[in-house]
Amino acid sequence: MGSSDEDTDQSSICDKFERDRHVFFFQMMYQMLPTEYQGQEINRLTLAYFVISGLHLLGDLACVSVDKEAVIEWVLSFQAHPQDKTAMSHGEFYGFCGSRTSQFPPIDNGVLSRNCSHLASTYSALSILKIIGFDFSKLGAATILTSMKNLQQPDGSFMPIHIGAEMDVRFIYCAAAICSMLNDWSGMDRQRAMEYIAKCQSYDGGFGLVPGSESHGGATYCAVASLQLMGFIEDDFLLTTQSASIINFPLLLEWSLQRQSDDGGYQGRSNKDSDTCYAFWIGGTLKILGAQEFMDRKALHDFLLTCQTQYGGFSKFPSNLPDLYHSYYGISAFSLLGEPGLTPLCVELGIGDIAPQPQ
């Protein structure tokens, strides 16, 4: 009887979107992260982005006891600043560090390296500040943008950190989102970035992380969202003349539509299981391309409900435990589907729409 009752309880919460449970889940994550997240300490700003943006999408940011001034102060404490004017010529990036430990100065041959700011952490920091309503004129954006140019490579790609790391479309996306949020495109060469993105389109129409790599849902979103943010996709969903000859739009659309599986969910690559997060990565791509009407919305809605848990939040696959990453993108996917009570999604930036600040 106990098992039957438990199964009944679980099934009873899977036939509708349980907003209150999700609010409670993100409120708990705001207060304290479980010990399982200790290994992700270096990504603390990104985890905070999931929490704050998740509460915003759920329409609860103003209701939960979030001290916005304290959040702003905390986020700004991760910002890297040059010690003097000459430091700007050393090739370092003065954005945001991802955590306290990434701010600790490691010793390299007796020389202290003081700056470990990262493009993804900077994207997360600016997203939080934008959601909270921080005035970016107080940020010192010129320093961020001027130093960010140091990260762009001759082929148009970006390193995420000045000491060197992988270079792929994820960091072009971060750079484009940063410029868009700061409303200043002086931090990157958009033409070179677009040309690199074009080289990442695979034979099947999707985009890989780097030229010649396998098409992937996350990489495809980063490529398409970057093109949209940089102004290379027009309102009629056709790429501009400047890029039309090197981006195969029909093949991209076909690849994206083929990612919806028989169970209604979206897979990130061919022959993979459906996964909650790809409802956003692929669904967001289709939204940007103006092709969301071709999605089987009911089937996707039903799949996502199978990943909704009795604890609140979403799991990667049905019947698994929830985690913060998949919970955030599950909420984002429901916003894409127009779930009542959720903040509409600004798909290109991956956050909820923000009301214009009073002048």
Automatic annotation (TrEMBL):
It is an enzyme of class 2 (transferase). It comes from the Eukaryota. Residues 17-346 form the Prenyltransferase alpha-alpha toroid domain. SUPFAM superfamilies: Terpenoid cyclases/Protein prenyltransferases (SSF48239). Its cofactor is Mg(2+); Zn(2+). CDD domains: GGTase-I. Belongs to the protein prenyltransferase subunit beta family. This is Geranylgeranyl transferase type-1 subunit beta. It comes from Kalanchoe fedtschenkoi.
